[in-house]
Specification:
Blueprint (H helix, E strand, L loop, with lengths): L3 E7 L2 E7 L5 H8 L18 E4 L2 E4 L5 H4 L3 E3 L12 H9 L8 H14 L5 H7 L11 H17 L10 H14 L2 H4 L1
Parallel strand pairs: 1-5
Antiparallel strand pairs: 1-2, 3-4, 3-5
Helix pairs in contact: 3-6, 3-7
Length: 189
């Protein structure tokens, strides 16, 4: 089959890649762009492991063709952090133990980000609805809800994405230890 050129805007950068016309956004992100944070799960749109944001909305990348996205902004888990500074959700997930095996975590993080962008101080019901398309077999969801609540409180206390220098020294140490755990090769792939 003949590959065609596809141009995507991913994590703030424009990429043009040659991809098979039947390849999904998931396949292009992982295989052509090397962004392996987005996970292969069921490939049927039932587990949420492949969730990315397209213009801020949750999209199952296993069911989406890159041509459908056009030049909309695609955000993957790799695009959450600001350089070495973790996104407040990544920090909260690590601190609350919401990232156990880590396989569902990228999709959960992006679903939670879409939620907090729309509802900065969500109720448990809003959280349950927002992550209802993301399956987790490890946590029982309580720690995920607690992580989203923590990230919501962080927004109220210090503003979204407050630099590490503005947070307490203890939080910075905890974040550093969590980053090592969340950034391990096993958790990324």
């Amino acid at each position: 089959m003949t590959k065609s050129l596809v141009t995507l805007r991913v994590n703030g950068e424009t990429h043009t890649v040659a991809a098979e016309p039947h390849h999904t956004l998931l396949e292009v992100l992982r295989e052509e762009l090397g962004l392996t944070g987005t996970k292969h799960g069921c490939e049927l749109g039932e587990c949420g492991a492949c969730t990315v944001l397209v213009d801020g909305r949750q999209v199952l990348s296993c069911l989406t063709l890159p041509q459908q996205v056009g030049m909309a902004e695609v955000t993957t888990v790799e695009g959450l952090a600001n350089g070495p500074e973790l996104h407040r959700l990544q920090t909260a997930f690590a601190e609350e133990g919401a990232a156990q095996c880590g396989y569902c975590t990228p999709g959960m993080l992006l679903s939670a980000k879409a939620l907090l962008d729309a509802h900065p101080h969500p109720t448990r019901e809003q959280m349950a609805e927002a992550i209802s398309g993301n399956l987790c077999r490890c946590t029982g969801y309580t720690s995920i809800y607690e992580a989203i609540e923590r990230a919501s409180r962080t927004t109220r206390q210090s503003g979204a994405g407050a630099p590490v220098s503005e947070r307490s020294e203890r939080a910075a140490r905890s974040e550093s230890a969590s980053l090592e755990r969340v950034s391990s090769p096993k958790a990324r792939d």
